[in-house]
Amino acid sequence: MYQRFANLSLDALYGIPAMCPVTNCQAQMSPLEMLAHLMMRHSPQDSMIEIGEDVAKQYEVEIDKLTPGRNHSIGVIAYGGAPKPSLSCAVTPDLQIVHHLPIILMLYVSPPILNTEQVYMFYLVSAVPSKLVSANVTLLDGCHANEKLGWRCLRNSLDSPLMDSQNRLHCNTDYLLYTATDIRELCLSGEQRRIFVKIVLHGEPFQAVA
After folding, report:
1. Interatomic CA distance for residues 68 and 73, integer angstroms
2. Residue 189 burial (CB count, 10 A)
3. Contact at 8 Å (CB) between 141 and 49?
4. Which pLDDT tens digit goes with each residue over 70-125?
5. How far apart are CA 85 and CA 168, in angstroms?
6. What is the spatial distance between Cα 148 and Cα 17, in angstroms, rounded to a whole number?
7. Angle at the Cα of 27 from the Cα atoms of 101 and 89, rounded to 5 degrees
């Protein structure tokens, strides 16, 4: 199952459009275009949630609302790293995102293929690929009672960091796979047809963009 996607380039996923996550915005574009769209067309408080280092954030996903063959924006993050009293402040309409690393948590659902199980691919999109910022991404059932790890696959970077980060995603370089069976098991053990995606970010974005 996983071998079929072992050499998948994220470039292929980046060409698939996603719907803008901001309420009442119907724009559709590729993930990297979406990142620019969110920063230039929408206020930060409407499009992003500020998250600090080692702080868990959960996003609800309704399985029946996912469209196979399409990208889906699960969450848009303004990552600030560790608290810095002189720099860190809440994301407001007046704040220019210069002390945060904007990241989109994306989900691609493969289209149904005969005799092939569907897969759910989670990956992180940022304007700046960084080896210094990484994320633990796991799935929870609707009752938050069961947590499931995915299968991490490296892509697009031969020197993508592996040491002490086997279960961590990095922006633009790798992705996390779950099968339809994984999703179905979580739906059966919790509230039906609903799961939660938990993300915990690590590292310093300031060094990444310096």
Report:
1. 14
2. 15
3. no
4. 999 999 999 988 876 665 555 555 555 667 889 999 999 988 888 788 899 999 99
5. 27
6. 27
7. 25
